[in-house]
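Subject: Interface between my chains keeps coming out wrong

I've been trying for a while to get a sensible model of this assembly. When I model each chain on its own everything looks fine, but I need the whole thing in one frame so I can look at the contacts. Pasting all components below, labels as-is. Any help appreciated, I'm running out of ideas.
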Amino acid sequence: MNDIDGRTNMLVIRTTEGISFSMLLAGPAPRALAWAIDFACIIAGMTLLGILIGTLGLVSSDFAQALSMILYFSISIGYGIMAEWFWRGQTVGKRLLGLRVVDVQGFKLQFSQIVIRNLLRFFDSLPLFYLVGGAACILSGKAQRLGDFAANTVVIRIQKNADPDLDQLTAGKYNSLRERPHLAARLRQQVSPQEAGTALQALMRRNELNPEARIELFRDMADHFRAIVEFPEDATFGITDEQYVRNVVDILFQEKR
Amino acid sequence: MIIDLQKFITDERPCWLELEETLDRIEKDPGLVMSLDQVKRFHYLYQRTASDLARISTFSSEPAIRRYLESLTAQAYAEINEKREKSHGFSPFQWFFTTFPSTFRLHIRAFWLAVAITLAGVIIGGALIALDPEAKEVIMPFSSLRQSPSERVAGEEKVVEDKLEGKKATGAAWYMTHNTKVAIFTLALGITWGIGTILILFSNGIMLGAVALDYILAGETQFLIAWLSPHGVIEIPAILLAGQAGLMLAGAMIGRGRRTSLRQRLREVSKDLVTLIFGVAIMLTWAGFIEAFLSQYHEPFIPYSLKIGFAAVEFALLVLYLGMSGRKRANE
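Reply #2:
Try treating it as a single job with all components included. I did that and got this:
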């Protein structure tokens, strides 16, 4: 079983076990860029081959011209098919832009699907610059051009499989709030998962913030958590707003020490 | 309640890593055959990771771990739930002698429909030329066809040397690539619920009918057959097969009288479409060679009887091939 989000940019697949996972759909702009890179690759490949074939022209210009015609045709059609088959849904352009062709139901991509989506480029590219395909992509709820529609494929943005690293969180640091276990328990009870997740994210990404924004963000967050559960002054004395939020996250995410 | 994230990761990470390794192994070797125990373990790891994903989605909004688990679950899901037949080693011999002709026969109704649409075009094209000879200016695809057939035949039959010397290979390449593009368009336009495919087949029929009747009315029937048939007996059926594929795609789009979903119908037909279009490409490659190396030569360079005889043999072989080849094996 699977399900697709209506007009969002996410493809949500629901497995038979009732688990959902989502993939971020790629819009027309990154796909157009990927196509431009692929087109440049085809031209570069043809130029190189043209030089090689040019030497054949010394023997027979007829044969060299025929070979060049057939190779251009084969490469312009076969490039997408072969690249997507060998790189599991990626071409050079898609690799560079972090895109991948996948089955719309999350199954393995089949060779026939790759061939169909690439052959229907002929129609998608009409009348100029993929106007038909681009329009279909914008109108489609799953950002599919007609080739994707016929082949049951979508193009997604690859999300990095970041290995979760929580070392930066709170490990090994003294947490004065833990000295008040009854208040810590109340904090766990009253903070919602969304609030906890936001605080965790803020800590994880704190180095990406500029100094003023960082101070302001953690001040607001600390005030928010202080309003939920008020710890006595001796437990919070001398700690910064950021340390306060870190201690709160430590309590929320790490029950036992 | 919020889970203890660090403990959760520490406990579950070995399973995730094991699943990741298994998936890497499958990716590197698509033909990998796992033992029953390995399959059971793989399924267990998938279910456990999927369950971890459910837990992390419910209890925490930590996106890095969720994305990681989503990616693992998605890959494992694709491996486990793929029910379509895996192609273990492609055999060109079996494909050519069994798969392609069997696929053609399996969807023969779409082929006959393509034939009927083209024939309708042939009749209209012929009628237009018969009723209004001036229509020739509009219908004929190439300027060389707009001249009087008798004048053209007289001119062609005066040629005694090889007029295509040094151009044949280029000509063959042009015919192959151009006709293959037309065939791909004919298939691709099936996505327009078949309207585009029908228009291409019909317009091809009109041109064919107009050219044929123009030469017949001028008393140049023998020249016409000798000129068109050596490549035409392969090229025309190839375009009809492309039309068959386009109409199959259209049939899947429309889904008349079928209870399966559009997505399922497109899935069912996709492999056969690819088989047909590859077969068409092979046919058009052959036709391109013949058109450049044989069809464009006329008497006294090559006797018409030889060209017509060659075309008859080609056509008989094509009918035998598409009608009979692989029939026994396909039935088995």
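Reply #3:
Confirming on my end. DSSP finds 13 helices and no strands in chain B.
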